[in-house]
């Protein structure tokens, strides 16, 4: 019943036959990305935010091929580690195209960012003497808001480690100027996968309230955090309103929004068992996709090229998709409607382009998965599968 003529899984927007082809050529588990979806996401952001400068938060998916494609579309990068700065440099980004951020930057990050002419996002007063001389900086403001997302993903709450309080902003701007740096403006990022648009309205409003205490500023960086169904034009309107209050240019830092929908994790059914639950065991798990275990994230699952056939035959049951790891938390999805799963069936786990491959691990000496890019007619392998030897290569 795995007919290539069956319907294309909407999670992938890649023809089922092409997904089978990729799984056959590169093996599973496999991350696949649709280039057209990447381009479409960039276009949606650019259309909604107009002249805003877009910095991709590369933590979401740092694959060099993804970075090159986004850079070619005019997108800069937000980097939060020496390795991310090195990736940006490797694809040719520097100066205006680079933001260096982080709550606990190392000497290596100050040095590399300085050498490349990056703008730094200052997270605490103590950074003033650590920055390279004459740095361009933004000050990260923590608006102290309860944010509608998983606790681990909220960064603008009063108890979060990020940024400075609104009251601390004016003296910090003065201290940065006195130290010879150039404060371009303010930065706010209240969290990730935010469900309620009012959170953004509240955060940008807190920033705008600072205007009488800061005077005009050149830049307002509204961060990222947009859920996949976010009303981008609405968020853009609020962000621009806050920017205009300062006479500022708007910058944004989306991660998930740019890459999540383009990515799919392909995994094969290993077998099934009916015990306390009905389990469909697959060859991917928490080591390939950590988000369900870590944040209770829900990803759509489709049987590639099979659903349409067997739904009609009334053979669809509800299955818990479980991986190969020896941990009970290694469940990728619960109550997934699947048509009579058979060993070897190919499943597509959608919306996995952000924080999927990026957070995969070699725990259990599992080989991190390969990644392939679909250009509409063919596949390019953009990361080969790790081997066990790769995993232990650094051990002496
Ligand atoms: N800017 C800053 C300062 C950030 O810390 C982040 C993400 C972003 C931008 C991009 O946020 P996005 O648009 O992707 O929501 N591992 C988690 C997500 C952690 C996000 C960390 N910061 C997950 O799998 O959902």
Key words describing this protein structure:
amino-acid biosynthesis; about 400 residues; eight-stranded parallel β-barrel; elongated; alpha/beta; TIM Barrel; disordered N terminus; binds ligand LLP; nine-stranded mixed β-sheet; De-COase2_C; Lyase, Ornithine Decarboxylase, Chain A, domain 1; 13 helices
Polypeptide structure, described:
Residues 37-260 form the Orn/DAP/Arg decarboxylase 2 N-terminal domain. The modification N6-(pyridoxal phosphate)lysine is found at residue 59. Specifically catalyzes the decarboxylation of meso-diaminopimelate (meso-DAP) to L-lysine. Its cofactor is pyridoxal 5'-phosphate. By secondary structure, the chain is α/β, with parallel strands linked by helices. It folds into two domains: 16-33 and 260-391, Lyase, Ornithine Decarboxylase, Chain A, domain 1 (Beta Barrel); 35-258, Alanine racemase (TIM Barrel, Alpha-Beta Barrel), CATH 3.20.20. It contains 13 helices and 17 strands. The strands form two sheets. Strands 1, 10, 11, 12, 13, 14, 15, 16 and 17 form a nine-stranded mixed sheet that branches. Strands 2-3-4-5-6-7-8-9 form an eight-stranded parallel beta barrel, surrounded by five helices. Strand 16 and strand 17 (379-383) form a beta hairpin. The protein starts with 15 loop residues before the first helix and ends with a helix. Bound molecules: ligand LLP.
Please tell me what the overall shape is: elongated
Number of strands: 17
Report the structural category.
alpha/beta
Count of helical stretches: 13
SSE topology string: HEHEHEHEHEEHEHHEHEHEEHEHEEEEEH
Number of domain modules: 2
């Amino acid at each position: 019943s795995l007919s290539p003529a069956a319907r294309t899984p909407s999670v992938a927007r890649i023809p089922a036959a092409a997904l089978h082809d990729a799984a056959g050529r590169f093996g599973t588990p496999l991350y696949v990305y649709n280039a057209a979806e990447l381009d479409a996401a960039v276009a949606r952001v650019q259309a909604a935010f107009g002249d805003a400068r877009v910095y991709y938060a590369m933590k979401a998916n740092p694959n060099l091929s993804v970075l090159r494609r986004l850079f070619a579309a005019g997108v800069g990068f937000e980097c939060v580690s020496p390795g991310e700065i090195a990736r940006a440099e490797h694809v040719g980004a520097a100066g205006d195209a680079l933001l260096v951020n982080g709550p606990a930057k190392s000497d290596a990050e100050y040095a590399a960012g300085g050498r490349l002419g990056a703008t730094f996002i200052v997270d605490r007063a103590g950074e003033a003497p650590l920055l390279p001389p004459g740095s361009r900086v933004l000050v990260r403001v923590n608006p102290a808001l309860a944010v509608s997302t998983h606790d681990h993903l909220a960064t603008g709450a009063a108890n979060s480690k990020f940024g400075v309080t609104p009251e601390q902003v004016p003296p910090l701007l003065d201290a940065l100027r006195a130290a010879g740096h150039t404060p371009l403006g303010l930065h706010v990022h209240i969290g990730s996968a935010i469900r309620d648009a009012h959170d953004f309205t509240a955060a940008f409003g807190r920033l705008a309230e600072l205007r009488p205490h800061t005077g005009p500023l050149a830049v307002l960086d509204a961060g990222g955090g947009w859920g996949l169904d976010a009303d981008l034009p609405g968020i853009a309107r609020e962000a621009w309103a806050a920017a205009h209050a300062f006479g500022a240019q708007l910058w944004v830092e989306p991660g998930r929004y740019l890459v999540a929908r383009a990515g799919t994790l392909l995994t094969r059914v290993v077998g099934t068992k009916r015990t306390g639950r009905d389990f469909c065991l697959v060859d991917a798990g928490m080591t390939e996709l950590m988000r369900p275990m870590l944040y209770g994230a829900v990803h759509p699952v489709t049987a590639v090229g099979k659903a349409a056939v067997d739904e009609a035959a009334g053979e669809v049951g509800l299955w818990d998709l479980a991986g190969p790891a020896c941990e009970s938390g290694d469940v990728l999805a619960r109550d997934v409607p699947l048509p009579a799963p058979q060993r070897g069936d190919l499943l597509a786990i959608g919306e996995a382009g952000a924080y999927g491959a990026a957070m995969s691990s070699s725990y259990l000496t599992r080989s991190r998965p390969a990644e392939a890019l679909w250009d509409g007619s063919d596949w390019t392998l953009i990361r080969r599968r790790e081997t066990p030897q790769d995993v232990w290569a650094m051990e002496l």
